[in-house]
Design a protein that fits this description.
This protein has helices at 2-7, 27-41, 54-61, 81-100, 103-117, 124-135, 140-148, 246-251; strands at residues 156-164, 170-177, 186-192, 197-202, 212-217, 223-228, 243-245. With 254 residues, the chain is an alpha+beta fold. The strands form 2 sheets. Strands 4-3-6-7 form a 4-stranded antiparallel β-sheet.
Length: 254
Amino acid sequence: MTTHELGHEWFPMVVGNNERLYAWMDEGFNTFINIYSARTYFPDQAWLRTRGQAELWAQFAATGRDEPGITPADRVTPELLGQVAYNKPATGLYLLRHAILDSTRFDSAFREYIRRWAFKHPTPADFFRSMEDGVGEDLSYFWRGWFLRTDVVDQAVDSVRTSRDSSGTTYTTIYLSSPGGLPMPVDLRLTFADGSLENTRLPVEAWFEGNHFTYVRIFPKELVKIEIDPDKNFPDVRRQNNTWTKSEAASARP
């Protein structure tokens, strides 16, 4: 589309990244910005609301055909170039802006990256450092899994256990895992026996010491269901392991 080509006046003409070596810093950045320009220009087109959303990328990533985004364009499998150099970086930046950080922090850091590297020649490492400087946060797990490798998001509820201490207080222990290799925050929707819901988010740091995490809570009501990422904010490639229900857990016991 026209706005995509106009965007090339910025990437790579002003921010002079090497588009032959790092196509994602050229085509990917412009595809990311096109998500918003298209929505603004075509506000009544509902299908445009899905562009950049995590669920679409998860469908492709689940095929196992993904390739590292940092791969030079001439080494990417030709029929996958649109995914690897365009859609993957665009979706990753959209995910970072909307689900991991927030638009205010992201936008400020992204503008500073452009200002800092205008009429210069940044590498991926320069972009990563500039963004981390701007948001004040270590995002190495994200850069590594999304751009340097082909890690996927796969979060699971392994099991749930209740226990009671000597005072009679009942504790609920939720055993979570992240076998996919790409850590993300964990959105949990908890359903109780009276039909009430509670939404809670565990920070991405929960996975920094391994791919298993134990979440312990005291609930005033009976917990009957747990669902990970019900709003599909993250590109989980296997949603069959995202839900636990008390009835199913009870029936599975010998």
